[in-house]
Design a protein that fits this description.
The chain is mainly alpha-helical. It is built from 6 helices and 3 strands, in the order H-H-E-H-H-E-E-H-H.
């Protein structure tokens, strides 16, 4: 791959991620879901429906007070419950309610349709190679020191 293309990979990945999220946001807006809300619901669903609030902060990548405001809205809609952690009363456990299941199923269906649109024209071999490359880049960055101001 020519150097110019290697230098663009970070920009292209960032653009793809922003575009994918923006398209999903557009499609989920009629369900009354902002990105902050659907991301939390999906993280909870993928983790068996229950996570400590501190873990949710890390997984979602937002500040604690921001997460609390979004959780307040989800709780008002009856989609989650927060309870005191039995081993640490200062901590909260966030749990999906049964009312969240149909909404999460709709999110998954809408996200699945978007995923198929995004992956159109890519065969299994191309997707496997892409996935392997993305995993390798992720491992490379997770294992190395973070240096501010470096190239993308």
């Amino acid at each position: 791959m020519p150097l110019a293309e290697r230098e663009r990979i970070g920009l292209d990945l960032g653009r793809l991620a922003r575009l994918w999220r923006a398209r999903l946001d557009e499609r989920l807006a009629p369900l009354g879901l902002t990105q902050a809300k659907w991301v939390i619901l999906l993280h909870l669903d993928r983790c068996g429906g229950t996570l400590p609030q501190r873990e949710l902060v890390i997984r979602v990548g937002v500040e604690g007070p921001t997460l609390v405001r979004v959780l307040d809205g989800l709780e008002r809609r009856g989609l989650i419950e927060r309870r005191d952690c039995p081993s640490d009363r200062r901590s909260k456990i966030v749990t999906l309610t049964p009312a969240a299941a149909p909404l999460i199923a709709r999110i998954a269906a809408i996200a699945g349709t978007l995923r198929e649109e995004a992956l159109a024209g890519l065969d299994d071999e191309a997707l496997a190679a892409c996935h392997a490359a993305l995993r390798r880049m992720t491992l490379n960055l997770e294992s190395g020191p973070l240096e501010p101001g470096g190239p993308s």
